[in-house]
Amino acid sequence: MNAKQLEQWILGNYQGVIVTDAYRERSFFYNPDGSLPKGIYFATIKESDGPNDKTSNLDREGIYRLSLGVEKKQYQKLFGEIPKRPAKGEIVELDFDFTTTGMLMPHPIYAWLGWVCINNPDSENLDFLKHLFDISYQNVLVKFAKKK
After folding, report:
1. Residue 25: beta bridge partners?
2. How many CA atoms lie within 13 A of 89 on its CB side?
3. What is the pTM of this model?
4. Which end of the chain is more exposed for a tag (fewer CB within 10 A), N or C?
5. What class does CATH assign to 3-147?
6. 49-58 burial code (b ≥16 CB/10 A, e <16)
7. Are 98 and 91 in contact (CB under 8 A)?
8. Average pLDDT of each block of 10 consecutive residues along the chain (148 residues)?
9. What φ, ψ does residue 124 adopt, rounded to 5°?
């Protein structure tokens, strides 16, 4: 599955999700009626390194990173303790090779917020990712209802 196919899958499976291009990535927000300035952050697809985000080495040919906010409780089920917030321009202090493909791992920068990522997800991990997307989607529905 390439990044464009994944984008179409997200938009086709989660109603009310919109996509914007910013900071060298496609950001997905839940904002079904446009009532919030941006919406509730849901996921990102990033295909290239940025000035403060080079850890995944996304400038490699054909490599992209899917990031998903699963909330801290789900993050802890997957990876244990939430790491401390990294200093500006730094990454979380965890023992992961963030260049690895096909493996779910904490987000190199936003793990402290309960975000996870995977470089180049494939059909082998799509079922599990769908489960995480469903959890994240339910979380954004609750957050959206509170903001309205």
Report:
1. 22, 46
2. 1
3. 0.94
4. C
5. alpha beta
6. beeebebbeb
7. yes
8. 94 97 90 92 94 92 96 95 95 97 97 97 90 96 91
9. -65, -30
